[in-house]
Automatic annotation (TrEMBL):
Pathway: Carbohydrate metabolism; tricarboxylic acid cycle. The chain crosses the membrane at residues 30-48, 60-81, 101-122. The keyword Iron applies. Its main location: membrane. This is Succinate dehydrogenase hydrophobic membrane anchor subunit. Part of an enzyme complex containing four subunits: a flavoprotein, an iron-sulfur protein, plus two membrane-anchoring proteins, SdhC and SdhD. It is a multi-pass membrane protein. Membrane-anchoring subunit of succinate dehydrogenase (SDH). Its cofactor is heme. The gene is sdhD. InterPro entries: SQR/QFR_C/D, Succ_DH_anchor, SuccDH_FuR_B_TM-su. Keywords: Electron transport, Heme, Iron, Membrane, Metal-binding, Transmembrane, Transmembrane helix, Transport, Tricarboxylic acid cycle. It is found in: Membrane.
């Protein structure tokens, strides 16, 4: 006879309370690794482009390589920011209405900043 050390609640609901803790943890780590790779590339290539000069900076962001690296960096940074702020809000805001409003605002802010950055890059590239 096999004896289980699981509680009855754990046998019924084996995923725990949130059902997504591991996925969120992995997503945050993947976005951090992406930032660790793409951010130095962005900084070095922007610095080598002669960025204090406005014409050089504009030509960097208008180039396909500069636009892609910039968009990848912004995407990883904003996604990582959204995930990190989500954890803070879920851990420290206990009122359901306030928590929900802040989580929606967090997602809208990240999406809005990404859209503004993508629009600016497209404006420079075209």
């Amino acid at each position: 006879m096999s004896q289980s050390f699981r509680t009855p609640a754990k046998r019924i609901n084996p995923h725990g309370a949130a059902h997504a803790g591991t996925g969120h943890f992995i997503a945050q780590r993947v976005s951090a690794i992406a930032l660790a790779i793409v951010l130095p590339v962005f900084v070095v290539t922007l610095a080598l482009s002669g960025a204090p000069d406005s014409f050089a900076a504009r030509s960097y962001f208008a180039s396909p390589f500069g636009a892609i690296v910039s968009l990848l960096t912004l995407t990883a940074a904003l996604y990582h920011m959204r995930l990190g702020l989500q954890v803070v809000v879920e851990d420290y805001i206990h009122t359901v209405a306030t928590r929900t409003a802040l989580l929606v605002l967090n997602s809208l802010l990240a999406a809005g900043l990404w859209l503004a950055a993508a629009y600016a890059l497209l404006t420079l590239a075209l």
